[in-house]
Amino acid sequence: xxxPLILANIELELGFEKSFExxxxxxxxxxxxxxxxVISQSILEKLKDVVRDRLFSSDAxxxxxxxxxQGHLGIPDPSSRASAIIEAWVEGISVVAQIGSARGGSSKxxxxxxxxxxxxxxxxxxxMTESEYDYYSDRFEQxxxxxxxxxxxxxxxxxxxxxxxxxxxxxxxxxxSRTGLGLMREGKGLxxxxxxxxxxxxxxxxDIGAIVSETLERNL
Length: 220
Fold this sequence. Notes:
Blueprint: H1 16-56, H2 59-64, H3 68-73, H4 78-91, E1 94-99, E2 111-116, H5 123-126, E3 133-137, E4 142-146, H6 148-154, E5 159-162, E6 166-167, E7 189-191, H7 196-200, H8 204-219
Antiparallel strand pairs: 1-2, 3-4, 3-6, 5-7
């Protein structure tokens, strides 16, 4: 004969659900605090790889290395110059984790990241020696400085070169650009391409979201 069914009414302590949620959130916050440095560093290294790959794979970078941009801008040794600038951007990336509090029983604001990729005014790279070069102008008969990176980053579609001819330093006119890829002739101008950095890093937020999600899942 089956045992009689015993019914019992159990009343949870008032506020138990909220207390339990507070406890769980507290555990999560504690783990985030303990692993915040590991999480930040992991995200940073992965983000560096993504940014580096995007910039080195960009159309503008390839054009600087023997393409139309090198020919138009006359950049000597474009590979080392562009590489130094890209690496400066990559090394300048920052990831700082902000850990919130579980007080109030809400998960809102428990974890946030402050990520810096490229300075808005590009002052970090525009101050580099690789961002410009000197050449002797036949027209002005003097050594002139060409801020090629500033043109690519800040000048947009405005005409940036007008009536410039390229010559080797010292004034020896060889009838061609220093790169051997063309000479800017009298009366012609060159419009800068759109900002190659922002184009290369378009939709980077999607990559950041994937990196952050994967890193948190692995560490929590």
